[in-house]
Design brief:
membrane, about 80% helix, about 150 residues, 7 helices, mainly alpha, 2 domains
């Protein structure tokens, strides 16, 4: 994908961020959009769907740029649906994971295992829960860092 188009879209995002108020900018998840644009541009040469989604996002951002000061809830909702659709494609087809994915997953697993161990081994739930949570956080953080090093983070 042409780097000029990517830079142009990033400039659109910055213009939208400046024109819109902070609350609207937070709802639009502009940082996530920026990461998605980078990923779509890297995959668009190999994946036809990524190329189509890139063009769709480009057209959508051009429209948003024009109305950035007065965005309606419907437009914000449409934007979030488009971003979620693109994220879903990237996660399913290209095996990318969201930031903190493994942390959340393994923290839940750790709490479950910790509560079971706390009741069975220690006969005290209060000891097992934090122990399991710490194990889950440690494993999840490690896997998140590994995914980040491999470039699999969205």
């Amino acid at each position: 994908m042409d780097n000029q188009r990517v830079d142009e879209l990033n400039n659109f995002l910055e213009e939208i961020r400046q024109k819109a108020d902070e609350k609207t900018a937070a709802k639009l998840e502009l940082d996530k959009c920026k990461r998605i644009i980078q990923r779509l541009s890297s995959f668009s040469s190999d994946c036809e769907k990524c190329y189509q989604l890139f063009i769709e996002l480009e057209n959508h951002l051009i429209q948003l740029k024009g109305k950035a000061e007065h965005l309606a809830e419907g437009e914000i909702k449409h934007h979030r649906q488009l971003v979620d659709t693109i994220s879903s494609h990237l996660q399913k087809q290209h095996k990318l994971v969201a930031r903190g994915y493994y942390l959340a997953l393994y923290m839940c697993i750790g709490i479950s295992i910790g509560s079971a161990l706390g009741l069975v081994v220690f006969e005290n739930l209060a000891l097992g829960l934090p122990l399991g949570m710490c194990m889950g956080i440690a494993i999840g953080t490690g896997l998140d860092e590994d995914a980040k090093k491999k470039g699999l983070t969205l």
